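Need residues for this backbone.
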C-alpha cells in the first residue's frame, strides 16, 4: 500500500504541534484517527518514526530523514493547489475550438479580439470542419454544433438559436422576378447543400406542409459558398441569420416569401467532454460566447 497525503499531513502536524492531541485539534480530527494514521504510515514504511512516551514524542533517526521528504511533498502539493487557484482566477492555457466554417467566420472570429483582451493568458486554437468531429480524436476542447444534437456522450450548453430565411440578391430578383408563392420556386434557380439533405428542406408553408424540399440547381458543401453564390446572383438560398445578418442590413441579400416562411430556428450548442470539473479556460469561453450571441 502507498503512503497517502493524509498520513504525511498527520505525521508532520504531530511533529509541529508536539502531540497527537494537539495535532488532532489542528486537523479537526479525532485523536484516535490521527493515531491510526501514524500507525498506518509506520507500518507501510516498516520503521518507527516517533518514539512515544507518556510525556512527549521524539523523532527517531528514520523519522528525521522521512520528515524532510514529507515536508517537501506537502509543500509541492500546496504549491500545485495554489497554482490551480490562481489559474481559476486568471484562466490560462491552450483552448482548442472547432466549428463549421460559416460560424467560425461570421460569429467566432469577430469575437476573438474582445475575448483575447479579457483573457490574455488563454491561447486560442481555432479549427473549422463542416462535419461532426470526434472531440478526443481531434484533440478539441469545445465544438460548436448547429442543429439537433444526437451524441448523448457529450455535455452540451445551449448558446441560442438562429432563424432560417430564404434569400436572394436584388440583381437576381430583378432579372428573374420575385416569387409570390412557394409553387413559383419550381421555375427559379435554387441553391442547396450537398449534405445533409435535411438542409434542403426549406421552412416554407405550402399546400403539402411546412417544409418545401427543393431540387437544387446548384449544390455546395459549405454554407458560405452558397451565400457567395447568392450574392453573385446565382439563385435563391436558405441560410441561417448568423451568416447573412450583414448582407441583409446592407441590402445585398433580401428575404423572399416572408409571409410563407415558418419561424424555424436552428439550436446552437457548445459541446465538450466533462469528466471532472469544467476547466476555467473552457468555462469562461462559454460564458463569453453565450453573452455575445444574440437571437433575433
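Answer:
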Amino acid at each position: 500500500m502507498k503512503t497517502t497525503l493524509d498520513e504525511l499531513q498527520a505525521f508532520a502536524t504531530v511533529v509541529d504541534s508536539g502531540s497527537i492531541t494537539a495535532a488532532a485539534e489542528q486537523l479537526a480530527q479525532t485523536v484516535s484517527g490521527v493515531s491510526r494514521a501514524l500507525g498506518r504510515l509506520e507500518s507501510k514504511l516498516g520503521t518507527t518514526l516517533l518514539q512515544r512516551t507518556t510525556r512527549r514524542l521524539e523523532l527517531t533517526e528514520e523519522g528525521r530523514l522521512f520528515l524532510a521528504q514529507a515536508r517537501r511533498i506537502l509543500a509541492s502539493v500546496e504549491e500545485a493547489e495554489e497554482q490551480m487557484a490562481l489559474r481559476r482566477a486568471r484562466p490560462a492555457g491552450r483552448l482548442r475550438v472547432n466549428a463549421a466554417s460559416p460560424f467560425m467566420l461570421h460569429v467566432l472570429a469577430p469575437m476573438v479580439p474582445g475575448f483575447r483582451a479579457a483573457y490574455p493568458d488563454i491561447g486560442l486554437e481555432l479549427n473549422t470542419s463542416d462535419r461532426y468531429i470526434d472531440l478526443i480524436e481531434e484533440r478539441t476542447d469545445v465544438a460548436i454544433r448547429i442543429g439537433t444534437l444526437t451524441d448523448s456522450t457529450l455535455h452540451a450548453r445551449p448558446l441560442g438559436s438562429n432563424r432560417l430565411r430564404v434569400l436572394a440578391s436584388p440583381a437576381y430578383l430583378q432579372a428573374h422576378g420575385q416569387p409570390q408563392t412557394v409553387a413559383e420556386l419550381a421555375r427559379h434557380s435554387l441553391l442547396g447543400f450537398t449534405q445533409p439533405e435535411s438542409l434542403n428542406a426549406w421552412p416554407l408553408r405550402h399546400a403539402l406542409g411546412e417544409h418545401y424540399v427543393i431540387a437544387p440547381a446548384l449544390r455546395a458543401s459549405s454554407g458560405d459558398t452558397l451565400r457567395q453564390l447568392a450574392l453573385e446572383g446565382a439563385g435563391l438560398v436558405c441560410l441561417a441569420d448568423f451568416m447573412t445578418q450583414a448582407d441583409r442590413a446592407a441590402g445585398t441579400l433580401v428575404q423572399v416569401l416572408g409571409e410563407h416562411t415558418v419561424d424555424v430556428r436552428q439550436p446552437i450548442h457548445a459541446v465538450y467532454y466533462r469528466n471532472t470539473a469544467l476547466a476555467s479556460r473552457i468555462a469562461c469561453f462559454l460564458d463569453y460566447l453565450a453573452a455575445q450571441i444574440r437571437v433575433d
